[in-house]
Amino acid sequence: MNRALERPKAITIETHSIGWIPTKDRHGKAWHQGPLWFLGNLELFTIAIGFIGPGMGLSLGWSILAGVSGLLFGTVFMAAHATQGPVIGLPQMIQTRAQLGYRGVSITLIAAMLGQIGAIIAVLVLLSQGLAGTFGWDPKIVAFLAAMTGAILAIFGHNLIHRVFQILLYISTPFYIILTVAILAGGIPAADSAVPGTFVLAAFLTQFGAGAAWTISYAPFVSDYSRYLPSNTKSGKLMFWVALGASGSAVWLMAVGSWLASMLGATDAFVGVQLAGNTVFPGLGSLLTLLSVFALIGVIALNIYSGHLSLLTAIDSIRSIKPNRKTRVLVCAVFAAVVLLISLLITPSAVAVVSIILTVILYLLVPWTAFNLTDYFFVRKGHYKIADLLTPNGIYGSWNWRGLFSYGLGLAVEVPFVVLPGLFTGFFAENLGGADIAFIFGLLVSSLAYWLLHRGKDYNIGRTITPEDEARDSTLMSISNEGSDANTR
């Protein structure tokens, strides 16, 4: 491979948008996905996930077991989606046109965009309020700088995001290791108010569900960052690095979060990390807090980047467009401005509302990940006509009733298990003590329904057919026809 393709310049604005990535622009290695997703979870939001079990009375050991099990469960789905990127070379949600149709995909695009917007708002609120309480910084200025920095990273796009994440990973990891070693060595004494906890089934299931949801929530855009890899990238190797990156840091910091909640009684990630770190040596807690800020800005960039791809895909599903660099700058800037404005209007008491919104989005996306992977691995076996995913007149049609029915059925079976605090609790969820395991039924039913509705149908086209393949075949056909005409004459 050309060395220039292997190490592209990271300071240029990405030229590709929602279109297919040509072979000449493919670059990178499977292991490059590891640092990206490792740093993506090396931040305070991941620590906060570990607070859930202890906050419901679950002991430290059971909290860690539940959280780790959930994270590993969700990572399987996330890593499986990553393998679609090199093969198909398109953003994740465009590939969904094969299951729902060219226009039918707009239904899940709305859920994906709302999820990305909600995630950015939640991070901005966490950052602005956390740094205001920790260092006394102006929350409005913090939110503005975080949103604009994330937008700039998203505008430059894929290569710069990967490069920045690698650098931040190397800087941040040693300090989190110091904190963890201090915890394991008993260098941070437990608080007098620490409550040991016990086994609570509802708390265990809720902690498991939160862990699974955390990694599954990356599914709608994980292949956005693997689509530049060469098409011959080994799927097993790619899954390994994505899973190692995403679950490695998530399992680590979620366990730290459970310890902070159980042994120090922490209820706020910023405060808990700062208190524990400064106990090891003065300034460590503050440094970890600041390093986590950069990681959270990276999370903002990831969601703006994929959010703008989702928005452009939604527009393209209604009316075909050909985005360029100006479009990228404009859409990313507007996207960032909108979420910044909303975050500034949210009060501390409204953070719970953001959490509920994110939970609803998870309910909407879980059936999608189920039928999408079922289609890729079991129905079409990774074989697609790329050009037909980019036109409403292709073989995938405008609306696919089988995919839409599978999606709707998956949503319906979740309802009895839904838990939205203060708003709605499903019948079966009440009998489980308020445990939220709706996503499990959404996954099972949606995938099974999709497989049954497509059983016996031959969708295997033999291999993935790219636009380059079609252009080459067209040229060969033209040459063949010219030769036939000459022989006739």
Structure description:
There is one protein chain. This protein has helices at 3-6, 33-40, 44-49, 52-55, 60-82, 84-88, 92-95, 97-100, 106-135, 139-156, 158-184, 201-216, 235-263, 269-280, 284-318, 325-345, 351-379, 401-414, 427-431, 438-454, 467-488, and strands at 419-420, 424-425. It is mainly alpha-helical and 489 residues long. The protein has one domain (13-361): Hydantoin permease, CATH 1.10.4160.10. Strands 1-2 form a two-stranded antiparallel sheet. The model is unreliable at 1-6 and 476-489 (pLDDT under 50).
**Average pLDDT score:** 85
The CATH topology: Hydantoin permease
Strand arrangement within the widest β-sheet reads 1-2
Taking pLDDT < 50 over at least 5 consecutive residues as the criterion, the unreliable ranges are 1-6, 476-489
| Strand content range | under 5%
Overall geometry? globular
In quaternary terms, these chains amount to: single chain
Order of helices and strands: HHHHHHHHHHHHHHHHHHEEHHH
Tell me the number of helical segments per DSSP (H or I, 4 or more residues long).
21
Q: Percent helix among the residues?
A: 55-70%
* Largest sheet: number of strands, sense, barrel closure: 2 strands, antiparallel
Rg result: 23 Å
List how many beta strands DSSP finds. Answer: 2
Q: Which homologous superfamily in CATH is the superfamily?
A: Hydantoin permease
Q: CA-to-CA gap between the ends?
A: 44 Å
